[in-house]
Amino acid sequence: MTDHAALLSVAREAVAKATGIIRSMTSFSVAAKGDRDMVTDVDLAVEDAVREFLARETPEIGILGEERGHEGNEDLWWALDPVDGTANFARGIPLCGVSLGLVDGLKSTVAAISLPFLDVTYTAAEGQGAYAGEERLEASKATRLSDAIVSIGDFAVGEEAEVKNRVRMALLAELGGRVQRVRFLGSAAIDLAWVAHGKLDASVILANKPWDTMAGVLLVREAGGAVVDTDGGDHTVRSAATIAVGAGLRDGIVAAIARVGG
């Protein structure tokens, strides 16, 4: 049986180490790694350090990192984004974070997200609630789209980006005409953590890269929110998209996505 409390302690320490590295590297290089996609040497330094730490502390658990791929156990593994929001970080925009989730089968059971420049760490373990520091989190109770602030994930880049972004543009128009405000924050970790914290009422990410999403998904669920795929079914690591909402907005957001063919 997985000891979630012990593994949460490991996750906290891992993201604290990552935060220390991010704050200490005041100069860095930026390199292209694809169409309108980038990596910094901070991303690489953080991932290498966290991988080394996790391999030492939890050798029986695999790890998938954005920059170095998957190693080890494929049934129980850490999902790591060393700097989620690299484009923000590279421009000095403080909306970025370290995201670390433990994936057991199809769902996450432990999560830690550190926002290095906002001085907050979010944590959760299955069945134990979600927290910002010592503050227990509660997702939004909003029930009307007209009251909702909704974040939308980054537009697609790379192969088939034009086709994928037609749906995003249609969704932007659909939600823009119905919700209180639409926001683009540039970090899935922040989108999801802030849905858990009640700062956002919903987040629509039309993608599901585990290093971006699995930690934040658990935060939202443990805060009383819902996370679903585009069809309204429960989100898993195999889902195509990551739609996080305060429970009262689930049907309204899913219906809006369906109207634009998402």
TrEMBL record:
PROSITE patterns: IMP_1 (PS00629). It comes from the Bacteria. Keywords: Hydrolase, Magnesium, Metal-binding. InterPro entries: Inositol_monoP_metal-BS, Inositol_monophosphatase-like. SUPFAM superfamilies: Carbohydrate phosphatase (SSF56655). Transmembrane segments: none annotated. The keyword Metal-binding applies. This is Inositol monophosphatase. The gene is suhB.
